[in-house]
User: Fold protein-serine/threonine phosphatase from Hevea brasiliensis.
Amino acid sequence: MENMKEVAIDSSAVESFPSIRSGSYANIGTRHSMDDEHIRIDDLSAHLGSFFKWPSAFYAVFDGHGGPDAAAYIKRNAMRLFFEDAELPQTSDIDAVFLDALVDCHKKAFLLADIALADESSVSSSCGTTALTALVLGRHLLVANAGDCRAVLCRKGVAVDMSQDHRPSNLPERKRVEELGGYIEDEYLNGYLSVTRALGDWDLKLPLGAASPLIAEPDVQELMLTEDDEFLIIGCDGIWDVLSSQDAVSFVRRGLRRHDDPVMWARELVMEASRLHSTDNLTVVIICFSSPIVVESCTPRRRFRCCSLSEESRNRLRSLLEGT
Assistant:
């Protein structure tokens, strides 16, 4: 997927770092085990020290399959895999050259994480995980995705997909798989896996260095956040199996306008997916970039119907009151 660069890059993008608030919630759903993991870091510099010279934040969701081990390993080693070992570009400016290098660096980090799983003895070769990361650097948002987790930006109430689902039903993915000798059976890659990109799953991949139908390379999208961009939702596929991108954005936006609490509405979004009979683990992170316009809730006033009494009724009422 092509990188999205909608606004010219300038130094003010760093100085106007959004006042980020975030919330997350995860639930096992109807599954027997919880294979999802997630990361929520509103202040990345507190974790990385001098790696970034600018305000930054980092979020991720991982949806494991074949057991929880691959997702748990990637979460546990995320700072090393995505930052410390990733050979981040060194510069004092966030410019086009830096952003291109950062995109390449993030792609490389996914591939290195994939190799790390191949070398990790505690993770079975039949175990894997999808991965989606969201990095906020200044006012720049960079989303990388391999698998069927999804990132959706709310722009003035309109859902803007920041990732694509890597599933066999995705025609470009199906074509790529078939060109590399794989096949799709009942919407499963090689009759086994419901995604076409993932970290791990080395029993389904060709030896290192060979082109494989199942790959770990992410699609990356990058844009500059504006005042129109209200929040980002990232979630595992258990959410998106039962909610469209726009449905999720509208649900969260209405909620945030009543109670400006992303933790609450992350939970409510998970509960909504559960009410809609999602059959998967449920994990979501909501990252707010601006304060919502709060809609005041008020108790409606009672309306009383006014009426006039006839002269006869007034005399009868007076008689009752006077006891006569």
In short: Residues 12-322 form a domain with the Phosphatase 2c; domain 1 fold (CATH 3.60.40.10). The radius of gyration is 26 Å.
